[in-house]
Design brief:
94 residues; mainly alpha; flat
Amino acid sequence: MGRTIPTASMMIQEEIDLFLRTFGKGLSHSHELEVKTLYNVLQHSKKHTQACGQAVRLVPFHSILMSLLLEQQKQLESLVDEVNALTVAEVKCR
């Protein structure tokens, strides 16, 4: 007997595919790079599949967006730390 409820990873992939089909249609062929970038960004939500599964939402895309925000914030903080480290190193060289 098969599953009646999709897993969180299946739900995430279905939402990503649906979003790319609908949103991607609105972009012209000249925006192919943007569609690839969007696909790569949406793939980051898969890093938090377990959290998405635990956060049962009526609209699954809300959990995906929260995962994306978390990943973007982590990347931003990492970049800020790198800039601060380079700034400190530059000051020491003077």
